[in-house]
Write a structure and sequence with these properties.
six-stranded mixed β-sheet; four-stranded mixed β-sheet
């Protein structure tokens, strides 16, 4: 179990408060704190968190360590605070207070376990978090229904969620396994591969591996560098066993990755330069299919532009995954059972090398985290490109991902634009804006003229 210092340091890395944690400096109201315990406990269950956290000593806007004087050992009308809160919380949960020093600042953390079996209530009322606000659960019946369903059946997964389609066949799955030297048995494969719900119905995993998955997976190709340009073609790879779909897309990537003849400085042999890194592309495709939120009914998307490939998967990183852990290669697949099959068939590895392979080639900026999806950008390394009637050397050109292109477009439209305004327009967090601005400045795309408060942005490429 992680120590409280590690937990706090991870929480402050978030761009804003999430529904399962709250920051305050010295705030205190005994009854409202009890309401927070109820709302945080129930929010943790909805968000697949083992616990939620209320932290004193952190500025809730800047996430800076400011320290606190909050006293959790005080009395409420002669009754110890912790006893007052526990007495009115039902069912009983083992919440706890703990204090520590971080950066020489006193911090107090209230750890609240997630709700189990039934929602957590305080003083007879159940609460939930919506954004950073705590509200009475009964005012939001759909959330209440969802919470009860999760507490009863567990969080929806591709294994416990029944497929819309029950007339499924698996001939292609058997053929695929045989091609890998692995035998499946008719009388046990459904159980061994976890293709049935607890009620014996085909689940979404079964649908994904069936002969007709009913899921379209397409690769769209555009003639230019945006979706505003003409669409060149759409390649269809879906509606079949997911394992075949992944193989076909990887094979198509090999077709796209045209070797480019580099004749410069040639002495004896010509150097062939690939259009993009094949290993990074492979890992990005496999990760997209493994981590896609299939229960949402949506599939990954692969889009090819004139200067890059974008690979989009639905959903976000795993519920027990941190951003740092993600980039360091900690393997926490969203769809564990599907991941086990990929491992069994040697499609992927348990080493967690996928993300490090991508970032090692293209940097962390290859990943863009949107509200409900993750996009990996694989830029093309073109040796030459046609600009007008001239062939222009493109080796070493720093390709910009979609986020950086949008930032530059907003700066063109408004050189005085601020970081908060960019956050609102582009829909990403403060840290992501800062990192991308830093990249653009470091690599000579933009510069700041004047001070941070009174200056403005300049697009350097347009002044050359």
């Amino acid at each position: 179990m992680k120590d409280i210092n590690t937990i706090v340091k991870q929480l402050i890395k978030y761009d804003s408060e999430e529904e399962w944690f709250e920051f305050k400096e010295n705030w205190f109201n005994a009854k409202e704190l009890g309401m927070y315990i109820s709302s945080l406990s129930n929010a943790a269950a909805l968000k697949q968190k083992e616990a939620a956290y209320f932290v004193w000593g952190i500025d809730n806007k800047t996430h800076e360590m400011v320290g606190t004087t909050f006293n959790y050992q005080r009395d409420i009308k002669g009754e110890p605070l912790q006893h007052y809160l526990a007495r009115q919380t039902s069912p009983e949960i083992s919440f706890s207070f703990e204090e520590t020093l971080i950066e020489n600042k006193r911090v107090v953390v209230l750890t609240v376990p997630c709700a189990k079996e039934v929602p957590t209530a305080f003083d007879g009322e159940r609460y939930i978090r919506i954004g950073s606000s705590k509200v009475n659960l009964k005012k939001y019946p759909q959330r209440e229904i969802e919470l009860f369903r999760i507490l009863r059946d567990g969080f929806p997964t591709i294994v416990n969620t029944e497929s819309e389609y029950q007339d499924l066949s698996f001939e292609k799955l058997f053929t695929y396994y045989a091609g890998k030297g692995v035998s499946l048995r008719q009388n046990t494969f459904k159980k061994n591969l976890k293709l049935l719900t607890p009620k014996g119905k085909y689940n979404i995993m079964a649908q994904l591996l069936s002969d007709d998955s009913h899921i379209p997976v397409r690769v769209a190709i555009f003639a230019g560098d945006s979706k505003a340009s003409p669409m060149y073609s759409v390649k269809e790879f879906g509606y079949t066993c997911l394992l075949l779909t992944v193989d076909k897309i990887l094979e198509y990537g090999d077709v796209l990755n045209i070797p480019q003849a580099d004749e410069r400085n040639r002495i004896v042999e010509r150097l062939d330069v690939p259009l993009f890194d094949a290993d990074a592309f492979r890992e990005a495709i496999i990760n997209a299919f493994l981590h896609n939120a299939w229960i949402s009914g949506n599939e990954p998307m692969v889009t090819i532009y004139s200067n890059r490939i974008e690979i989009l998967s639905r959903g976000t990183i795993g519920y027990d995954q941190t951003m740092e852990g993600f980039f360091e290669g900690e393997s926490k697949p969203v769809n564990k059972e599907l991941s086990d099959i990929f491992l069994q068939l040697h499609i992927s590895e348990r080493t967690g090398r996928g993300v490090p392979v991508i970032t090692g080639t293209y940097g962390r900026e290859a990943f863009e985290f949107r509200q409900n999806s993750i996009v990996v950008t694989i830029p093309f390394n073109r040796i030459n490109a046609i600009v007008g009637d001239k062939v222009v050397d493109k080796v070493g050109d720093k390709m910009l991902n979609t986020t950086r292109q949008r930032i530059m477009e907003e700066i063109r439209n408004n050189p005085n634009i601020t970081h908060p305004q960019l956050m609102m327009k582009i829909g990403i967090g403060k840290t992501a804006i800062q990192n991308n601005i830093s990249y653009l400045r470091k690599n000579g795309y933009i510069e700041r003229v004047g001070s941070n408060k009174t200056g403005y942005w300049k697009i350097i490429e347009e002044t050359k």
